[in-house]
Amino acid sequence: MPNEWSREIRESCIAGEKMQAFAEGKIGINVGASAFLQAHPLVLEEFISKGPVYFEVLRYFLTLIEPQKIKEAIDSFGNKLLYKIIIYEYGIYKQTEDERRSLRKTTSFLDLKSNAYWSSLSPKRICSFISYCLKEAKDPEFASQFLTVLPSEAVSDLKNLAGLNIEEEKELYLSLKDGIYELPIQSPGIYRHILQLFEDDPEIFLILSTMEELVLRKQQIIESSHVILEKYKSGKLNYQSLFGDLSVLEPEITMEILGIFEEKGILGRSEKNLIKELLSKHKNFKNHTP
Predict the structure, then answer these.
(1) Structural domain count of the chain
(2) pLDDT at residue 163 in the model
(3) What distances in angstroms separate CA 277 from CA 220, 251, 273, one per listed residue?
(4) Would residue 2 count as lying in a domain?
């Protein structure tokens, strides 16, 4: 085992030297990116502590390397290091806010290419980071942004996954501001819990209590799309069968599900439009059948 440790330490030190060489323009991107993936978190922390140029090198790697390849490296990071990296990125994002507004670009922070790796991280890893932002960094507003990259079932169980007490939960959700009312639509499973959480806040409770029908409808969309997705997980998508499954649903729910499938890359734009057209003709035919 000691030999294994010494080998890992040696390889990580070499990786740090290669990253330094890349920052100085002495080696190519492939060698530099490979070194980044091999470097121990402590080596990376020392690397970015050297100044903004080194942070930029690390940002470049995060943008360039495929999210799935980065996942293992990110999983090995402590939350403190990950927070340093992501808060630096966020600072740059905020600095360019006026420029994006003038260009009418509405890209959210976590939609940036350099943050694409968040979608490959496990809910447990993301919840651990949210917990760090709340408990250690004391940054609930920043933490609340990461709710958007969690699957709805993870948001519904956030209290347990992130180990939050009631006050921390409330602080997190209040940091969403008006987004607190969008959260139950995105994750219907949290609706009853968040309603109970804010039962002593008349304004928030009143607005949330009027949303029940909308939340239940969203729950139906999520459940229907999940059932259909499970049918096609193991094999190639059968469009005839998909048409049959969608044709028995309400048109609004069908359109929502088609939108979800396009977003997930299951259907292309032309395929989605073709199914929409067929469903529309089917509906008209049914309406005109004596």
Answers:
(1) 1
(2) 94
(3) 23, 12, 6
(4) no
